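Case study 2.
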Amino acid sequence: MIVITGAAGFIGSCMVARLNEAGIEDLILVDDFSNEKKRPNWEHKKYIDKIDRKDFFLWAEKNALHINYVIHLGARTDTTETNYAILEELNLDYSRRLWSFCTYRSIPLLYASSAATYGNGEFGYKDSLETTRKITPLNLYGKSKQEFDLWVSKQSSEPPYWAGFKFFNVYGPNEYHKGRMASVIFHAFNHIKEHGNMNLFRSHNPEFADGEQMRDFIYVKDVTNVLYWFLQKPRQSGIYNLGTGYARPFLALANATFAALKKEPNINFIDIPEDIRDKYQYYTEADMRKLRDAGYRKKARSLEDGTKNYVQKYLANGDIL
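Prediction:
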């Protein structure tokens, strides 16, 4: 059996879909399933059982001998969260407990970290232990992910095989429930549909023109392809960047969204909300050499191709992956 935490969420539900696509159905879905808005993300998937995250460890102790892998994608992903106790409980304490369980029971573990750990990028974006020890996140969400990565680096006991993934800006189907935290493409599609235009954040950094803020945008299907590849056989344990390796401006994202809708661009610039202005990353670009050196060769979709697939196949039809 493969356990997937966060299975009702964005990346977690897409991972379940990727496994189903590969003919794998002996899955245990773990999440808080009380949110009915997320129901479309799991109701048509193929799996053995779904377990509330609060009941998981009790269930896991009774079924440990049948668990072949744990993919830990569950987390509080709100980058505007100001109550660190919530992030500490869900992103740090729960992850530590899961690591300890997998270590004791000799179960391989894949888990989600985040590019939010890199902060303003002053030490670069290399997924090395040296960089991990230097970087300072700009928000509490990033801090919670960083603290777990650092905790992992200090453990003398570990699962038989493990990998953490610093997800960069992931976009794609099944994120409809994320509200403010959904991708810019998701919000742009809905704003264009309703108003015929879209908003981008104005730059408050003199080094970047409006719309020229740059991020490494990666399509969720490329993310799940990498995770699936790591399931095929043991690779080198460690923390890996998971992006495309190419920073692209938000203007390129906006133009790709209009192109997917076959409309002429109509873009407005608005101020970055004050509650996130001093925590805003103006540039991210994944250093992908470690993943390439591990043997992964499949090229990620371009921003244009990923946006077109997302908009035309999913958003325009209201479909779920």
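The two ends are 22 Å apart (CA to CA).
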